[in-house]
Write a structure and sequence with these properties.
With 424 residues, this protein is an all-alpha fold. The protein is 67% helix and 1% strand. It has helices spanning 9-18, 20-25, 31-42, 53-67, 93-112, 120-142, 144-151, 160-184, 191-209, 212-230, 235-248, 250-262, 270-288, 310-320, 340-366, 375-394, 401-421, and strands spanning 79-80, 89-90.
């Protein structure tokens, strides 16, 4: 199917963004299914005979990660559960990542086939859904008890609901670049004050919700916008090269540097302090298998507790004032390192990290210079880089397919903004 013979893929994207909000409110895991739906439609638009080095590098990274399950200590079955009982699930992280990557690439490739045009209805739908998401995020920040009451019929009020609210805030962080891009499509000087107000309001909402990673996201979005404004020819390259260097040096920066910071006796928040200890442990694991890594999701099996590290046990007891013995059995690394670069090092080794950096550098050289892009798509692309890197640095597991699916959908939305900003 082509744009001439059928409906525009812009309509498909608009339909996807209608589902953006409910998926976000219910914990964001549905984004992997949503990108699957956009990929099914995308299959009728893309050119299957065209490949480039970036697609090959992304595929190589996904295949390498999936292959590492062979030596991972926590390698899982492909399918588990019962379809009739509603417990059917795909547990193999490697296969989930390969499928998510495939769906995201298809969605993005189909978006690139959209012809220049206005697409007012599609962009209005997308903008309204994201604006409602933003208003809901701000309302939940101002009225947290009311938000928990709304979640109560569907999820546990004290455990599940707060996590769903934070995940929804993270999803809005990834939708925010599209809103900023849409604002830049408005003529006149008012767009800049409105965009600044949107960033400030989002910062306030994230702060009230206690989402440190989303607060960092606003900071990095602002930094990315400044870089691409000051360096109109090389802004995107500078951003992605900096991220690549950070990933390459993450064992040194987060492991060694973080360890020194943890021992400095500074009054750090307990959540950040615990991440420093997790990064120390992960760096030790990197040193054990630096080339191949321990295998995908191996960090789930690292069950060292503070009792296994008397120096850390003494420090956490002093920091928290709790000395009832609970910390002796508390895991230093609860599930994953909360830094994707360091997790790549630990689980896929130098080979996986090298492939990831290659992908970033290929993206950097494929993106046009900021000065050659319309203002709307330039702002949206820079903001998405900043927001994604914040979540990459402090939040999810690198194998969280819903995170990558959300980025895939958001990136396709930015392509639509770009097409709508081009002369017809």
């Amino acid at each position: 199917m082509t744009e001439r013979r059928g409906i525009s893929y812009a309509t498909i994207l608009a339909a996807a963004f209608i589902l953006w909000l409910p998926v976000a409110l219910f914990g964001t895991q549905g984004y992997s299914s949503l990108v699957g739906l956009t990929a099914i439609a995308a299959a009728f638009y893309v050119r299957w005979t065209r490949f480039n080095l970036l697609v090959i590098a992304l595929a190589a990274l996904a295949v390498w990660a999936a292959t590492s399950s062979i030596w991972s200590a926590v390698s899982q079955s492909v399918l588990v559960g019962n379809l009739s009982e509603g417990t059917f699930n795909m547990e193999a992280a490697g296969l989930r990542i390969v499928l998510t990557l495939f769906a995201s690439v298809l969605t993005f490739a189909a978006a690139l086939r959209i012809k220049p045009g206005r697409y007012r209805i599609s962009l209005t739908i997308i903008g309204v859904m994201l604006a409602v998401h933003g208003a809901g995020t701000f309302a939940m920040a101002l009225l947290p008890e009311g938000a928990l009451d709304l979640y109560a019929p569907f999820s546990d009020r004290t455990t599940e609901a707060p996590l769903n609210i934070l995940r929804s805030a993270n999803a809005f962080l990834l939708g925010l670049p599209i809103l900023l891009g849409l604002l830049m499509m408005i003529g006149g000087r008012a767009r800049w004050p409105i965009a600044a107000a949107l960033l400030v309001a989002s910062l306030v909402a994230f702060s009230l919700l206690g989402s440190d990673v989303s607060v960092l996201g606003i900071v990095l979005i602002s930094a990315a916008l400044i870089v691409t404004t000051l360096f109109a020819r090389s802004g995107f390259k500078l951003l992605l090269i900096a991220i690549s260097i950070f990933i390459l040096a993450s064992p040194l920066i987060l492991g060694v540097g973080g360890g020194a910071l943890a021992k400095a006796g500074l009054p750090l928040p307990t959540s950040f302090q615990s991440r420093l200890w997790a990064w120390q442990l992960t760096t030790e694991k990197v040193a054990e298998r630096p080339i191949l890594g321990h295998g995908i999701e191996a960090s789930k099996g690292w069950r060292e507790t503070f009792g296994d590290h008397p120096d850390l046990l003494k420090q956490i007891v002093a920091d928290t004032g709790i000395n009832d013995g609970r910390w002796e059995y508390y895991r230093i690394l609860p599930g994953h390192p909360h830094n994707m670069g360091l997790q790549l090092w630990a689980e896929t080794g130098l080979i996986g990290v090298s492939l990831a950096v290659l992908c970033l550098l290929l993206i950097a050289w494929k993106l046009p210079p900021p000065e050659r892009l319309p203002l709307a798509s330039r702002v949206a692309a820079a903001a998405l880089i900043g927001a994604s890197f914040a979540l990459f640095s402090l939040s999810y597991s690198v194998w969280n397919e819903a995170f990558w699916a959300t980025i895939g959908i958001a990136a396709a939305g930015i392509v639509l903004i770009h097409r709508a900003s081009q002369p017809r």
